[in-house]
Design brief:
single chain, alpha+beta, Jelly Rolls, Immunoglobulin-like, 5 domains, 6-stranded antiparallel β-sheet, Glyco_hydro_2, Glyco_hydro_2_cat, hydrolase, hydrolase activity, hydrolyzing O-glycosyl compounds, Beta-galactosidase
Length: 742
């Protein structure tokens, strides 16, 4: 029978360095990939792994569940092969290279720049053997371990109970393939067998199957497949699967097993503070528990294939999953990159075919950050065709960058579509989301539309009683997410919405809000220790178990004019108690109650919000003046802007006189006028070298096409973060408003 041994120790060295012991999984970018500067090490790292001694008469394999980006594998100096793609499972046959003892596998892993996706994206590409590595022994007759990293057992269930099994044994002449289908209690509900062939097909029937029904009832069956030589089972593989049906309606959204189920959820990156991608099963379990706690029923697993164990957790928790490949941000021309998109999609679909939680295959993300071109569109159509050919039972989708025109050909490539919209953060206002969505739905009523990303930076040390876009405060993020939930709640035609992001994650090129190397849009901090206030806004909307949360509890010092207390809840009313004295009861409107100008005593105060048996308590200090430590300093230093007359002047509202140019105009319009083009030349250069543009790779936009041309100059400067101070924005606007249009 098959045995699997987890390999947890290795020796590791970067190019030109001495080997040192490391534990597997491992990444060499755990620290430098999260500290900012866009300077994390990308190169070749070498691992030496000692193997168990082989068993006579057995075959030996080595399995890698993730090595980023390219892995070249040797056993005892003999080249076994190379794998390109950092996120899928792959295996090599060790048997011809094995000795009786003292066997060593060497793996050269490279995350150096190449034509293997991803190369351009707003997250860190951690290098290393960052997922589990295993040594597998089997009998000569076994289910094919070299079938693209799959189990070689594929289950296609239909809700009627008809169940097709495609099985791929090797060296099994004269053997029989036998399959038992078992319910969740382990009872055999159907069985069948057939002579073993290189591709053996069985069709079994389960009477009145118990349906996999999402979060309400994630019921899984198990297919246990064996290769029998006579009466002896020489190899056995078990895979979980589920019976379910679904469709997406352009007016009513997602339907599961004949019931309308609005999909509301989160996106997830896999990395963690000081670990990068080299995380444990316990880490995966904590993530799934937090996502369940917030009340989500769908997860977009961005922007690459995730660990098999996480898909397993989704199967048994009931999440509806969007799984995707890292065909992202910028198209890479050429055969190697093209072939890599095909191989990554092939591996994603084939390796995850049996997971009942997966409903959607994502073919790309924000690929029009770079410029559109015919070979890109052709590549997208080919990747979509791969997914549909390998798996006709699921739908394909893609995540479009905001500036993708509604009429774009990209919007008819996949079965359903979705947009990444950051109105209210990078562009415009949160209120712009609803009208945009309604316009698209009115123009294309037969298309299924979702929102695949939306979010706001949320940094826990910044606070304001008067939050505004790009102040990075917890209060602005909370208001933004509340506005988004109100927008979505009145638009049932959206097939799914996914918050960006459930967790903060590493993006080493970032430098925003006083934090380097991190995207801070998570509902939970990078270390998973703190649930930010927006977490509880979602919980108020998405959960039914009574909850109540006082927002702004980290905004402790409250001066006069800063003493509103905001409470989020799924209860009908909220009672506020201040220092033991009841201060009033309010009805919750849109899951929110705002107690105006609460009478706080000087010094320490204890405030409790309650409804029935649930309550939340926070401590606030009544102070005479605003605590300026809550304000993000302007510019690159930590000087107090409030002591600087020039900085105070820069913060005054800007003027946008009608009939004149301003920073509110689109970059293309400003570049079309020689006078305004000269004014913004330096701004364009600054943006091109900002931390946010580091994700653009070599495809820098000249403003005539792609992402920058369709943006307003003010939004471009927002996107660049601290690269543009308030004073610089004012100077640019003052210069532009002197030039008349027409």
């Amino acid at each position: 029978m098959r045995t699997t041994t987890l390999l947890t120790a290795a020796r590791f060295a970067k190019e030109g360095e001495a080997f040192a012991p490391v534990a597997l999984p491992h990444t060499w970018n755990a620290k430098d990939g999260q500290d900012g500067g866009n300077d994390y090490w990308r190169g070749v790292g070498t691992y030496q792994i000692d193997l168990p001694d082989p068993t006579d008469g057995k075959c030996q394999y080595i399995e890698f569940k993730g090595a980023n980006h390219v892995a070249t594998v040797y056993c005892n100096g003999r080249l076994l092969g190379q794998h390109k793609g950092g996120f899928s499972t792959f295996r090599f046959d060790l048997t011809p290279a094995m000795k009786k003892t003292g066997n060593v596998v060497r793996v050269d892993v490279s995350n150096a720049p190449s034509d293997i996706y991803p190369q351009t994206a707003d997250f860190t590409f951690f290098g290393g053997l960052y997922r589990e590595v295993s040594f597998i022994e089997t009998a000569p007759a076994h289910f094919d371990l070299l079938k693209g990293g799959t189990s070689a057992v594929f289950v296609t269930p239909i809700v009627s109970g008809t169940t097709r099994l495609d099985l791929f044994p090797v060296e099994a002449d004269g053997c029989t393939v036998s399959v038992d289908l078992k319910d969740a209690a382990g009872n055999i509900v159907a069985s069948g067998s057939a002579p073993a062939g290189s591709h053996t097909v069985l069709t079994l029937s389960v009477k009145n199957p118990h349906l996999w029904n999402g979060m309400a009832d994630p019921y899984c069956y198990t297919a246990e497949a064996s290769i029998l030589r006579g009466e002896e089972a020489v190899d056995t593989v078990s895979v979980d699967y589920g019976y379910r049906s679904f469709h997406v309606d352009p007016n009513t959204g997602f339907w599961l097993n004949g019931k309308n189920v609005p999909l509301h959820g989160v996106a997830r990156h896999q990395d963690r503070l000081d670990k990068g991608w080299a995380i444990s099963r316990a880490d995966h379990e904590e993530d799934i528990a937090l996502i369940k706690e917030v009340g989500a029923n769908t997860i977009r697993l961005a922007h690459y294939q995730h660990d098999q164990y996480f898909y397993d957790l989704c199967d048994h928790t009931g999440f509806v999953v969007w799984a995707e490949i890292p065909f992202i941000s910028r198209f890479i021309p050429g055969k190697e990159a093209h072939d890599n998109t095909i191989s990554q999609m092939t591996e994603l679909v084939s390796q995850n075919y049996n997971h009942p939680s997966i409903f959607f295959w994502g073919i790309s993300n924000e690929i029009l950050i770079g410029k559109d071109r015919e070979d890109l569109r052709r590549n997208l159509r080919e990747v979509n065709a791969v997914a549909k050919t390998l798996d006709p039972s699921r739908m394909t989708t893609m995540a479009q960058v905001t500036m993708t025109p509604m009429e774009s050909e990209h919007n008819v490539i996949t079965d359903v579509e979705s947009y990444n919209h950051y109105f209210g953060w990078y562009f415009g206002e949160a209120a712009d989301n609803g009208p945009w969505l309604d316009k698209f739905h009115a123009l294309y009523p037969d298309r299924c539309l979702g929102v695949s990303e939306y979010g706001s930076e949320c940094i826990l040390k910044w606070h304001s009683a008067y939050p505004e876009n790009h102040d990075y405060t917890e209060e602005y993020a909370t208001e933004y997410h509340h506005d988004m939930l109100k927008t979505f709640s009145t638009r049932p035609y959206l097939w799914a919405t996914h918050v960006w992001n459930m967790f903060d994650f590493a993006a080493d090129g970032r430098d925003e809000g006083g934090i380097q190397g991190r995207n801070n849009k998570g509902l939970v901090t990078y270390d998973r220790k703190i649930k930010k206030d927006p977490f509880y806004v979602y919980q108020a909307y998405w959960t039914t178990e009574p909850m109540i949360h006082i927002s702004g509890s980290r905004f402790v010092d409250r001066a006069p004019g800063e003493r509103n207390i905001t409470v989020y809840t799924n209860c009908p009313t909220v009672t506020l108690v201040v220092n033991g004295v009841e201060a009033g009861t309010l009805e919750a409107v849109d899951h929110c109650a705002v107690f105006k100008d609460v009478a706080l005593a000087d010094g320490a105060n204890t405030v409790t919000a309650k409804c029935g048996d649930v309550s939340d308590t926070a401590a606030f200090n009544g102070v005479a003046e605003h605590n300026y430590a809550y304000d993000l300093p302007e510019g690159n230093d930590a000087a107090n802007w409030f002591d600087d007359p020039k900085a105070r002047e820069a913060r005054k509202p800007l003027n946008y006189p009608e009939g004149f140019y301003s920073i509110k105009d689109k970059v293309t319009d400003l570049l079309a006028n020689s006078e305004t083009a000269a004014i913004i030349k330096d701004a364009m250069d600054t943006f091109a070298h900002s931390s946010m543009m580091s994700m653009m790779g070599n495809d820098k936009d000249d403003g005539e096409g792609g992402i920058m041309g369709t943006m307003r100059l003010s939004d471009m400067m927002k996107m660049a973060g601290k690269a543009f101070s308030a004073e610089v924005k004012r100077q640019l606007n003052d210069a532009l408003t002197k030039i008349k249009k027409g």
